[in-house]
Specification:
It is a single chain. The chain is α+β, with helices and mostly antiparallel strands. 40% of the residues lie in helices and 13% in strands. The protein contains 11 helices and 8 strands. It has helices at residues 6-19, 27-36, 58-67, 79-92, 95-107, 221-237, 248-257, 264-291, 299-321, 347-353, 364-375; strands spanning 112-115, 131-135, 138-145, 156-162, 173-179, 185-190, 199-210, 214-215. The strands form 2 sheets. The chain has a 4-stranded mixed sheet with strand order 1-4-5-8. The chain has a 4-stranded antiparallel sheet with strand order 2-3-7-6, with no helix packed on it. A hairpin with an 8-residue loop joins strand 6 and strand 7 (199-210). The longest helix has 28 residues, at 264-291. It is globular. The termini are far apart.
């Protein structure tokens, strides 16, 4: 097999640009051509948007395309599909599932959401009660999911449901791909402290899912879900940003532009948070380099922990720095946005929205346990429900 190196990737990218000039090619057509050329995610297999190349060489392609003014696939809008659904489908999907879902997912033609958390199964996700009962070639799903980002615009969802209540909670779960347009799927907005309804609750009533849309073996859904969760935490906490990118950027800019707002105490706090943000950024870069060698591990939980704490502390400092202006809020209108825009809104929005960072993608308390047990090797917390059938658990 031919080894794909940086020079070969530059050649292939320039061929793509010559055949499909960004200035005259429809955006979606260009993205489809990029996927078909194996330049979407170069470390994916050939024929599935990649070239079996090292993950580290993706930056070579991205730099060439950015210099040519080529469009991207709006990754913030389709982040759940890119960061969670795609690696799970790649790891556990059939060849038919990979061919069907990966291309429209990457191009952005189909938005994905995640049907995991439930009102009674958030931090303890394996306690979920949504049921999937086999009926011929289909599964019939009934239950409720909550805190579902993008459910109001999603075409597909990754879903975990209980298929055997007689087994312990981690062993009676199966993993499915759910069509959000099926009868019985109801999406209701959840209005947040920001005034928006970025999240949703989803009710599933007699929803039929073909067995051909199951990922992994029946009853082995927890293993599949762990792959999703590890990738989720990396995508939330380990995204690539430049120095002074993310939440620290607006605070540093305000500090430089408004010297009249400065105090000694605020200066010390800003310096401390600036250094911590830079350390987190470099740690994220190191984590991405580790991903070149394989699947994400529990270290992603540590990055997500740092992301949540820093966002909350930095946004709090920003509100204090702006004084009376920091108490203002731009718009309480009830909206259902397609993405979270931390840096495109005002300080009040950042302060309010960051409160959810320590809950979404795994609560900070759960992630502390993961870091303690799987990274530091500390003894696990005692658990007396691991071998008890789900139906016999106290609820």
């Amino acid at each position: 097999m031919t080894v794909v190196d940086a020079a070969e990737l530059r050649r292939l990218t320039r061929e793509l640009l010559a055949a499909h000039p960004p200035a005259t090619t429809d955006r979606t057509d260009f993205l489809k051509a990029r996927f078909d050329a194996g330049l979407a995610w170069v470390h994916y297999p050939a024929g599935l948007g990649g070239l079996d190349a090292p993950r580290s060489l993706q930056s070579v392609v991205d730099a060439e395309l950015a210099a040519a003014g080529a469009p991207d696939n709006d990754p913030r809008r389709i982040g759940i599909g890119l960061g969670m659904a795609a690696p799970t489908i790649l790891g556990f999907g059939t060849d038919e599932q990979k061919r069907r879902f990966l291309r429209p997912l990457w191009v952005g033609e189909e938005v994905w959401c995640q049907l995991f958390s439930e009102p009674g199964a958030g931090s303890d996700l394996a306690a979920l009660g949504t049921r999937a009962v086999r009926d011929g070639e289909d599964w019939v799903v009934d239950g409720q999911k909550v805190w579902t980002s993008s459910a109001h615009v999603a075409r597909w969802a990754i879903l975990i449901a209980r298929t055997d209540p007689d087994l312990p909670k981690h062993r009676g779960i199966s993993y499915f791909i759910c069509d959000m347009t099926e009868p019985g799927v109801e999406v209701r907005p959840l209005r947040q402290i920001t005034g928006e309804a970025e999240f949703n609750e989803v009710f599933l009533t007699g929803v039929r899912i073909p067995d051909s849309r199951r990922l992994g073996p029946v009853g082995d859904g927890w293993k599949v879900a762990r792959t999703t969760l590890m990738n989720e935490r990396v995508s939330i906490g380990g995204s690539r940003i430049p120095r002074e990118g993310g939440m620290i950027g607006p605070v540093a800019r305000t500090w430089r532009e408004h010297p009249e707002l400065r105090t000694h105490d605020l200066h010390q706090r800003l310096l401390t948070l600036w250094v911590e943000a830079e350390v987190a950024r470099l740690a994220g870069e190191r984590l991405r380099q580790q991903l070149v060698a394989g699947q994400p591990g529990p270290e992603g939980s540590g990055m997500k922990l740092a992301f949540a704490r820093l966002n909350q502390e930095i946004s709090g400092l920003e509100v204090e720095l702006q004084g009376e202006e920091g108490l203002l809020y731009d718009d309480w209108t009830m909206r259902r946005p397609e993405l979270v825009d931390f840096t495109g809104r005002d300080a009040g929005y950042r302060y309010l929205r960051s409160k959810g960072n320590s809950i979404e993608g795994g609560t900070s308390e759960v992630l502390l346990n993961i870091v303690a047990e799987r990274v530091l090797g500390l003894p696990a917390e005692p658990r007396d429900d691991k071998d008890v059938a789900w139906k016999d658990l106290s609820r």
